[in-house]
């Protein structure tokens, strides 16, 4: 009886491990990245911070990205933030505020807009650039990817990502600190055709146990493949970022 | 009065903004398409209450011809307007600043263009600019040792906009692969005549300044130069780098060739001291897991006065005031405008600012405390403040400042002992 039971357990274990090995998590993650946006692109985003009483604060951002590690974000609205711009070169981040008149170094953990979003949410590079897939699981309609940050500069130590098997776009992402504490839950929905073969969720809803009853929503629009000269991603160019539009 | 009613109407509008239904999400990006002409700015109302120190040297200097008073209540209204006309290759930009002020001493107003320039930009690699332009060089938060072509920063409010100078300038950017990632060169031509840039320095000089920026590995580096002319020639450099994701380090150094400063003794005998001076600054910015940011800067001001030299100046004012010597007071006032009462006239300072973003889960709320310490005479200012930005486009700030120091020290001899301020700013 015990031998038969052990054999059954062995087969079940082998079956699961076969299933896990058949799924190349890193390849899936790269496809997820490409389905979310081209490697070099421009896009518009609206960030909405919603408080428990329903009141909200909105920000509109114009974003450009080049290659794996160059990104620039320009605030278009509200008026109090207009002209602010943030630059990311690999792990370096800077913030330019027109009144201050010069770029200052910032960290990925800081929040430019307040609320649930921090700088790394707004200046996020491809998931496959920042994370390695440690484990992947295949289910009927989804894959579950367990991601580990490649270095300490990445805001969240681990991500657990549920990926739509057919569309290969993320559905839900849980972000964990190194301590294992859940920091945020991100939910993608409203899959939309942005043209030029970009079909992806147009909405990202973020909640956090650290901000109970608060919610942040990111809406995506006008995602287009576009290339930029490297000089655009420099401190001297930050005050002129409006010129890109 | 009409001005303040006008200002108030702007400040009331956003308070009545409606609440939205939580699921009302829409985004039409075409609304945010770039316009040929864009205008934005802010209106601001500021109320200040100053508790005056009648026995302080700078009170005696500034109020010697006034009836004795222990307080000053000041109302200030400000409008700043920035306009841009944008074409693919050209940008015409202006920033107009107007301010009206009233207190028990009287009323006054001023208006000026802080910036008004034309930029020619055919490619990201090259920009040419002509007109009034405000440069902000250097990496420090509270001071600007590399501010060779700009007005000095106010360490009590370093993020205030500042008036520029009329210049011709260019900006060349080149990106590379390898450890040296960016090279950018910014030459500036700044003429000074009786009519143009007269506040910059000695007239009838053609001043040339330049800055070379390098991003080497993960370090920002600037090298700056100013030719001899309206001001003594000088060179400088700065750096900034993140030592870890939450720890930034920065520094500045400048060397001025033949800097001249007036020097007085306690009796009013004035000499001129000339020397080649080094100044330097070392600073850090540290962010904790609970979103507390600490900024610390140590500033060694090579042009500054020692505690004993500052003490001589304050003794001169006390002596002139006690003996009702008007000509000596005028002399002290003139020396003050030249050097002694300029911002941070001492040799060594420490700047500490601690701010905590959104404590107790109160969104858009940032309390902070700032201290500036004169390390030579141990006097200091301490400024707690509360900032709330929860209403779209609105900033509400309460700030208190206490100045502490013994007699004949910098902060002990300021005209006020404390200051309360409420500032309401609405952006449009």
Give descriptors for this structure.
heterodimer, A: 245 residues, alpha+beta, 13-stranded antiparallel β-sheet, 4 helices, 13 strands, 17% helix, 43% strand, B: 428 residues, Porin, 18 strands, globular, disordered N terminus
Shape of chain B: globular
Order of helices and strands of chain B: HEHEEEEEEEEEEEEHHEEEEE
What's the tally of helices of chain A?
A: 4
Give me the CATH architecture of chain B, please: Beta Barrel
**Pattern of helices and strands of chain A:** HHEEEEEEHHEEEEEEE
What's the arrangement of strands in the largest beta sheet of chain A? 6-5-4-3-2-1-13-12-11-10-9-8-7
Profile the largest sheet of chain A. Answer: 13 strands, antiparallel
Q: How many H/I helical runs of chain B?
A: 4
Helix content of chain B: 10-25%
Q: Give the termini distance of chain A in whole angstroms.
A: 72 Å
Taking Cα atoms only, what radius of gyration of chain A do you get, to the nearest Å? 20 Å
Radius of gyration of chain B: 24 Å
Output mean pLDDT of chain B. 92
Topology of helices and strands:
The complex is a heterodimer of chains A (245) and B (428).
Chain A: H1 2-22, H2 25-36, E1 41-50, E2 56-66, E3 70-77, E4 85-89, E5 92-96, E6 103-106, H3 119-122, H4 127-130, E7 131-138, E8 142-149, E9 158-164, E10 170-176, E11 182-193, E12 199-207, E13 215-225
Antiparallel strand pairs in A: 1-2, 1-13, 2-3, 3-4, 4-5, 5-6, 7-8, 8-9, 9-10, 10-11, 11-12, 12-13
Chain B: H1 2-12, E1 37-52, H2 57-62, E2 71-86, E3 90-103, E4 106-123, E5 126-133, E6 165-175, E7 180-192, E8 205-216, E9 219-226, E10 234-244, E11 247-264, E12 270-287, E13 292-300, H3 307-322, H4 326-340, E14 348-356, E15 365-374, E16 379-388, E17 394-404, E18 416-427
Antiparallel strand pairs in B: 1-2, 1-18, 2-3, 3-4, 4-5, 5-6, 6-7, 7-8, 8-9, 9-10, 10-11, 11-12, 12-13, 13-14, 14-15, 15-16, 16-17, 17-18
Helix pairs in contact in B: 3-4
């Amino acid at each position: 009886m015990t031998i038969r039971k052990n054999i059954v357990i062995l087969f079940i274990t082998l079956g699961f491990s076969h299933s896990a090995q058949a799924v190349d998590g890193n390849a899936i993650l790269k496809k997820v990245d490409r389905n979310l946006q081209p490697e070099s692109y421009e896009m518009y985003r609206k960030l909405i911070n919603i408080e428990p009483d329903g009141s909200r604060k909105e920000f509109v951002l114009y974003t450009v990205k080049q290659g794996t590690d160059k990104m620039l974000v320009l605030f278009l609205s509200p008026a109090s933030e207009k002209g602010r711009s943030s630059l990311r070169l690999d792990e370096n981040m800077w913030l330019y505020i027109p009144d201050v008149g010069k770029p200052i170094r910032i960290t990925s953990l800081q929040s430019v807009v307040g609320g649930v979003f921090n700088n790394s949410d707004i200046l996020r590079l491809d998931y496959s650039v920042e994370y390695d897939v440690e484990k992947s699981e295949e289910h009927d309609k989804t894959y579950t990817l367990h991601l580990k940050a490649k270095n300490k500069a990445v805001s969240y130590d681990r991500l657990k990502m549920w990926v739509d098997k057919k569309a290969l776009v993320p559905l839900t992402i849980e972000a964990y600190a190194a301590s294992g504490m859940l920091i945020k839950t991100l939910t993608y929905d409203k899959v939309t055709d942005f043209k030029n073969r970009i079909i992806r969720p147009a909405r990202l809803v973020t909640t956090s146990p650290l901000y109970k009853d608060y919610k942040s929503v990111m809406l995506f629009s006008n995602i287009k493949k576009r290339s930029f000269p490297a000089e655009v991603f420099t401190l001297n160019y930050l005050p002129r970022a409006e010129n890109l539009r | 009065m009409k001005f303040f009613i006008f200002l108030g109407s702007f400040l009331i509008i956003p308070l009545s903004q409606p609440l939205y239904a939580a699921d009302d999400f829409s985004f039409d990006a075409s609304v945010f398409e770039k316009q040929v002409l864009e205008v934005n700015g802010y209106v601001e109302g500021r109320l200040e209450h100053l508790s005056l120190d009648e026995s302080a040297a700078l009170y005696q200097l500034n109020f010697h011809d006034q009836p004795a008073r222990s307080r000053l209540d000041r109302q200030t209204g400000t409008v700043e307007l920035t306009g841009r006309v944008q074409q693919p290759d050209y940008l015409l930009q202006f920033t107009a600043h107007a301010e009206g002020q009233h207190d028990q001493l009287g009323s006054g107003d001023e208006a000026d263009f802080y910036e008004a320039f034309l930029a020619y930009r055919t490619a990201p690699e090259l920009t040419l600019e002509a007109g009034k332009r405000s440069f902000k060089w250097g990496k420090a938060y509270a001071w600007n040792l590399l501010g060779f072509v700009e007005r000095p920063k106010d360490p009590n409010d370093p993020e205030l906009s500042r008036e520029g100078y009329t210049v011709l300038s260019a900006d060349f950017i080149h990106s590379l692969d390898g450890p040296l990632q960016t090279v950018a060169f910014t030459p500036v031509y700044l003429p000074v005549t009786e009519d143009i840039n007269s506040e910059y320095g000695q007239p009838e000089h053609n001043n040339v300044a330049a800055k070379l920026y390098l991003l080497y590995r993960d370090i920002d580096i600037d090298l700056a130069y100013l030719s001899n002319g309206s001001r003594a020639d000088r060179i400088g450099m700065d750096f900034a780098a993140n030592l870890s994701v939450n720890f930034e380090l920065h520094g500045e150094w400048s060397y001025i060739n033949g800097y001249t400063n007036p020097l007085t003794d306690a009796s009013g005998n004035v000499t001129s001291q000339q020397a080649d001076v080094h100044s330097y600054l070392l600073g850090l910015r540290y962010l904790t897991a609970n979103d507390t940011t600490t900024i610390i800067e140590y500033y060694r001001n090579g042009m500054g006065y020692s505690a004993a030299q500052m003490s001589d100046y304050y003794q001169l004012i006390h002596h002139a005031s006690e003996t009702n010597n008007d000509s000596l007071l005028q002399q002290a006032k003139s020396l003050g405008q030249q050097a002694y009462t300029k911002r941070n006239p001492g040799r060594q300072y420490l700047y500490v600012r601690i701010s905590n973003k959104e404590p107790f889960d109160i969104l858009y709320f940032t309390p902070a405390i700032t201290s500036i310490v004169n390390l030579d005479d141990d006097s200091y200012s301490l400024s707690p403040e509360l900032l709330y930005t929860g209403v779209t486009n609105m900033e509400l700030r309460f700030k208190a400042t206490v100045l502490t120091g013994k007699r004949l020290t910098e902060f002990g001899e300021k005209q006020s002992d404390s200051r309360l301020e409420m500032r309401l700013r609405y952006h449009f």
